[in-house]
Design brief:
heterodimer, A: alpha/beta, TIM Barrel, B: alpha/beta, 8-stranded parallel beta barrel, 4-stranded mixed beta sheet, 16 helices
């Protein structure tokens, strides 16, 4: 069987990176910024500083934590037909999360995202069959701030039955958010983990108090956590890709240790959020060859630690669903997928994931389709070689009339939905991005998502109303 | 030191492909379609069919001919600073071809190629450091058909100081072309092969008479050859990636045998032209995931044989320089670069190499820059781990003030695109990428001058062309290689 596979670090080099990561954790340590974390770390034998709320971690604390991390993670849907297993044979794809703006793909203008946009994008992603799970985008800027996370989650469960991944930034939001998800799927998340969260560490070497305290509650409730370090080479990380990866891994392991101590056996995924800073603007570069290398190193090291993974995939710095967007996304997604990433963040985001583009969701759906064809494992033998046909057709002639041509054409050759094949004339006067945006609007208008039962709808409304009331809104 | 590498076939699987290709060569054989080839093959021990002009090739003959292929091939340039050695471990990028149409990136309309467009294209390539050498990317449809084959090369060499690679379709063109190339090289092509020839086999399992005879003449004058089999899954190749590549490898080996017999030790580069037929339109597809896998197999098999190779990547079926074009280019490009292709075809072609887009030439330069950074060999050691900085910055804080930040930033740790749009959204409003790229190409063409050929050489080319025009009865007045006549 043949399957394309990218490798980067040698075994010796992996060992080197591992040692350097331990050196950082042992000598510098990590700030957890909450006594709840420090208590657990101290009990496990880490050297802690109660005043600074920091801890130094050694291999004897890290190794047992790594051993209890499950290799595969169920990402349940609202119903079981949408369940995915991360870490299995299939590459899981997720839409880009937390954009601020919506792009008008025709005029090139952007505007603030709204709840209606979030609903539309969610419905669109529910209808795009190469996308497995969703990360809310754009941020519903029109929702009242005190219930914004709840409006977001309510919009997600009402407009899609696919699994949702998002952040929970404060411990107070844990219960109401989980209530929405448990109501929507009709089961506790410990049984049906319909919701997962990303936990962003703060480079260099810190955890955010509120998000960490939320994380400690979430693992007890069966919610898988994507630990997502985000050092940027040049600003919050050292200028080399290697140094930035070492920092990424140190932060990753610090998160793994904490959550495994809090709830041994809880589902954790290594997310690769490291990037490079644009040294002119200080901004974040989401897609570049360096991101490709950072993904390679961090994926290989996560595999070395036995952790399931999620890589930055089709993200783009491009300002529109254009050549640059295709090229940037193509490069980073292919590199990560061929390096064995278990899941990829891979649709819809532009301008360093600040903008959502309807056209890009639809076109990325094709890019993911192509990627999956590329990744397919194929037998290399006389049957797939079609030797009988080659020998019989012989010199000259053609294969059009062969039975194998008919039987194999659908399975052998991937077919895009939007990418253009065929003649130039068929495409003349029909710009791809405009047509993709049109297609997106069509899907949003016609794609049906099974409605939630009335009592569930009412329950979700009451959860939001209760929080709003308590906040005095 | 490390760089990303991609692998597809295991060693056993490579052996399998090799064995099946040999089986095709031994059991089915190859249509060479010229007695000139058949004579050589018969003499070398192949079982030939003189009536059918075909030959069955024993494995032993294939091995013997592979053994005389040089592992490296010099592609010399008019300006020696642009010399390229294919197979020396470096990665080079060659401009693709051959488009029939010129695409207007702003209106989306296309028009037929012309001598003037070819001149502009070559001048554009001359100035772009990402382009290491080039095919004459666009057909000059307005040239007289009897002399076009010669004039295209004269135009290319006059407007590009880099190596030129192209087909020679007619054996009658070989002698005058060799004269032209020697005039430009200032000596023998054995020393300074400023031109290499492309030999397209005709799938399944055939060689075209005229091109084969022309290529035999070219290799005998010291010209290296790029062998480019082009079976298409579903029409001229079987409907599987693997089967199509077995046909590709069989055709490659059949060319290796012929040209090594014609000129032992001649430089041969393995090219990948295999693709997929669009079963609805019958058209050639080159940007699909299957084509990327074909390239992987082709590159791995070329390395198996010790042949330098050219991957067909950074190409597309998209009809314009849009997201599809970018995605298809990287789909094929990333794996080609990581699999160890010596050269990758790139720059400008859209619509299955039917149209040329100047915007895409420029945008592909950024793709090439990104790919070069992606596959760069980097050390994994203390000097790059920056542990001292990590310890000194500690928890919180930042790296902006660190000396290493300045030092590694300057040293190119982070690649910078020329055209791709980074930074604030506001700074790019109403500046569509493609329009900017097209404008950039116009700017370059307005200012860039290519050093002219020396007067003596130019006059010599005139004389060779006139002599040839007379011999075939073409009007010398139609000659347009210098752009004197429009």
């Amino acid at each position: 069987m043949a399957r394309a596979r990218i490798t980067y670090l040698s075994d010796t080099e992996k060992e080197f990176v591992h040692q350097k990561t331990l050196e950082v954790l042992g000598k510098v340590g990590v700030a957890y910024n909450t006594p709840r974390a420090i208590d657990r770390l101290e009990a496990a034998g880490a050297r802690v500083d109660r005043e600074a709320l920091t801890a130094r971690l050694t291999w004897d604390v890290i190794e047992p934590a790594l051993k209890t991390v499950p290799r595969t993670v169920l990402l349940a849907g609202r119903d079981s037909s949408r369940d995915c297993v991360l870490g299995g044979d299939r590459l899981i794809t997720t839409s880009d999360g937390m954009t601020t703006y919506m792009l008008d793909d025709v005029t090139g203008e952007r505007r603030d995202g709204t709840t209606a946009d979030l609903a539309a994008v969610t419905r669109l992603c529910d209808g795009l069959d190469e996308l497995d799970t969703l990360w809310p985008s754009p941020n519903p800027g029109d929702a009242p701030a005190e219930v914004l996370p709840l409006v977001t989650q309510a919009t997600m469960v009402r407009n899609s039955t696919k699994h949702v991944q998002d952040e929970v930034r404060t411990p107070e939001m844990v219960e109401p958010i989980l209530e929405i998800y448990e109501a929507a799927c009709g089961a506790p998340l410990t049984e049906r983990p319909y919701f997962s969260v990303t936990n962003c560490t703060i480079a260099p070497l810190q955890h955010d108090r509120e998000m960490t305290e939320a994380g400690l509650k979430l693992v007890d409730r069966g919610v898988p956590i994507f630990v997502l370090p985000m050092p940027q080479a040049g600003t919050t990380g050292p200028m080399t890709l290697l140094g930035t990866c070492i920092l990424n891994l140190a932060e990753l392991l610090s998160g793994i240790v904490l959550y495994q101590l809090a709830h041994p056996g809880c589902a954790l995924i290594s997310g690769v959020g490291s990037a490079v800073a644009d040294m002119r603007s200080g901004g974040y570069i989401a897609s570049s060859p360096e991101i490709g290398i950072i993904n390679l190193m961090c994926l290989e090291m996560s595999q070395y630690y036995g952790l399931p993974t999620q890589a930055t995939g089709m993200s783009a710095d491009a300002k529109a669903a254009d050549f640059q967007a295709g090229s940037e996304g193509g490069m980073t997604a292919l590199t990560a997928a061929l390096a064995g990433a278990d899941s990829l963040i891979s649709a819809g985001g532009l301008d360093g994931v600040q903008i959502s583009s309807l056209a890009k969701y639809v076109l990325d759906n094709d890019q993911v389709g192509a990627l999956r064809r590329y990744l397919r494992e194929e037998p290399i033998d006389e049957t797939t070689a079609l030797m009988d046909d080659i020998l019989e057709v012989g010199i000259g002639g053609h294969f059009l009339g062969r039975r194998s041509t008919r039987t194999h054409s659908r399975s052998e050759v991937w077919r895009p939905r939007m990418f253009r094949k065929g003649t130039f004339e068929e495409s003349a006067g029909r710009p791809l991005a405009a047509e993709a945006a049109e297609r997106a609007r069509e899907i949003i208008a016609t794609h049906e998502v099974p409605p939630l039962p009335d009592d569930v709808e009412r329950h979700i409304d009451s959860v939001i109303a209760t929080v709003a009331l308590a906040a005095g809104a | 030191m490390t760089r990303p590498r991609v692998s597809y076939l295991s060693r056993e699987e490579q052996e399998f492909v090799h064995e099946q290709a040999l089986r095709v060569l031994e059991e089915v054989g190859i249509g060479y379609n010229t007695p000139e080839a058949i004579d050589l093959l018969a003499e070398a021990g192949a079982r030939v069919d003189r009536a059918a002009l075909s030959a069955k090739l024993p494995g032993e003959l294939v091995q013997r001919c592979l053994a005389t292929c040089p592992p490296q091939v010099l592609l010399a340039a008019r300006d020696p600073r642009h010399d390229v050695v294919v197979g020396d471990g470096s990665l080079t990028f060659c401009a693709d071809g051959t488009a029939t149409y010129m695409l207007d990136d702003v209106t989306g309309r296309r028009s037929e190629g012309s001598a003037e467009w070819l001149r502009r294209t070559m001048r554009l390539y001359d100035t772009l450091p990402e382009v290491d050498y080039a095919w004459p990317t666009i057909s000059a449809r307005d040239l007289h058909p009897l002399t076009a084959g010669l004039e295209i090369e004269a135009i290319s060499l006059a407007n590009l100081t880099k190596h030129v690679q192209d087909e020679v379709r007619d054996p009658a063109h070989a002698a005058p072309l060799i004269e032209i190339f020697e005039a430009v090289a200032g000596g023998s092509l054995w020393d300074r092969p400023i031109f290499s020839t492309i030999d397209c086999t005709v799938a399944p399992l055939q060689h075209e008479r005229e091109m084969t005879e022309a290529t035999m003449a070219m290799v005998r004058a010291g010209v290296p050859v790029l062998v480019l089999p082009m079976p298409l899954s579903g029409t001229t190749g079987p409907m599987s990636v693997l089967g199509t590549m077995i046909v590709n490898v069989a055709e490659l080996l059949s060319a290796v045998v012929l040209f090594q017999l014609a000129q032992p030790g001649c430089g041969i580069i393995s090219g990948m032209g295999a693709g997929v037929a669009d079963m609805r339109s019958g058209l050639y597809l080159c940007g699909t995931p299957e084509c990327a896998l074909m390239n992987l197999i082709g590159i791995e098999m070329s390395r198996f044989y010790g042949l330098p190779c050219t991957g067909s990547a950074i190409t597309c079926d998209a009809k314009a320089s849009n997201q599809q074009a970018g995605a298809e280019g990287m789909l094929t490009g990333v794996a080609c670069a990581m699999a160890g292709a010596d050269t990758i075809l790139a720059f400008g072609c859209t619509d299955g190499a039917q149209s040329l887009s100047f915007a895409k030439v420029l945008l592909d330069c950024d793709s090439v820059g990104a790919l070069r950074r992606l596959v760069r060999d980097d050390p994994i050691d203390e000097t790059r781990a920056l542990l001292d900085d990590i310890a000194a910055v500690g928890i919180g804080g930042h790296y902006l003030g660190r000396k290493s930040t300045r030092q590694f930033h300057r040293a190119g740790e982070v690649w910078r695109p020329a055209l791709w749009q980074r930074g604030a959204f506001e700074s790019y409003e109403r500046r569509p990428l493609v329009a900017e790229a097209a404008a950039r190409a116009d700017d370059i063409l307005r200012t860039h001058e290519v050093p002219p050929l020396p007067d003596g050489v130019s006059a010599e080319i005139d004389a060779i062309l006139e002599r040839y025009a007379r011999s075939v009865g073409a009007p010398a007045a139609r000659m347009n290689w210098k752009g004197a006549v429009t």
